[in-house]
Amino acid sequence: MALQIPRSLPAAAVVVMLMVLSSPGAQGRDSPCKCRVTISPSKTEALNHHNLLVCSVTDFYPGQIKVRWFQNGQEQTVGVVSTPLIRNGDWTFQILVMLEMTPQRGDVYTCHVEHPSLQSPVTVEWSKGSLLVSLQVPQDKDAHLSLAHLANTPIPSTCPGFHY
Question: Does the domain formed by 36-158 have CATH 2.60.40.10?
Answer without folding.
Answer: yes
